[in-house]
Amino acid sequence: MKEADYLGPIQPALTLYLPHRPAGLDELVATPDAGRLMENNSNHWRKIVTLLAKIASPQEEWRSFRDGELFESAALCFSPRLRNVRGWHWIGGKENLHRFSIEGLNAKPLIGAPEVALDVEKRLLLTPYPDYRQLSNATVAEIRKALDHTGFYSGARGYSR
């Protein structure tokens, strides 16, 4: 049986690409559940899921979004190629980025978080690996501000609620 390489809706607003799969992914594919994913894995995955929720949540209050709606509008992908979807693509980690072949990359660093870059045309978010040490609350706030500027939270480029 082939390992699952995707968890989430068909047309997510945001897909986070990572090089490593969590334990129990195969059981979650049919019914994605952030709580079960966090329960079945280490604190490392709790941090990843929480950061995904903090960035993907259309509201500032991300906890209820993480625990109830996260995988209705956000996804995790473990394949080294961007999915053909309308939403944003978030590649976490420099080494992870090297797995991808992306032509004409025009990512610009964020002024308030130069370790993060956005390519608005390709809807691509490039960050350090999603960990609290590398993606602080201040950095997450800068990412949210930049995505909001693109219309991500209002539906223009991200959510289609």
Classify the helix fraction into a percent range: 25-40%
Instruction: Give the N-terminus to C-terminus distance in angstroms.
Output: 35 Å
Run of helices and strands: EEHHHHHEEHEEEH
Over all CA atoms, what is the radius of gyration? 14 Å
The low-pLDDT segments are none
Supply the number of helical segments.
Answer: 7
Total number of domains: 1
Main β-sheet, in a few words? 7 strands, mixed
The helix-and-strand class reads: alpha/beta
| Envelope shape | globular
Task: Count every beta strand, where a strand is a DSSP E run of 2 or more residues.
Answer: 7
The largest sheet has its strands arranged as 1-3-2-4-7-6-5
What's the overall average pLDDT, rounded?
93
Report strand %: 5-15%
Topology:
Blueprint: E1 6-7, E2 14-17, H1 25-28, H2 34-39, H3 43-56, H4 63-68, H5 70-73, E3 74-77, E4 88-92, H6 94-97, E5 108-109, E6 117-119, E7 124-127, H7 137-149
Parallel strand pairs: 2-3, 2-4, 4-7
Antiparallel strand pairs: 1-3, 5-6, 6-7
Précis, in short:
This protein has 161 residues and is of the alpha/beta class. Helix content is 32%, strand content 15%.
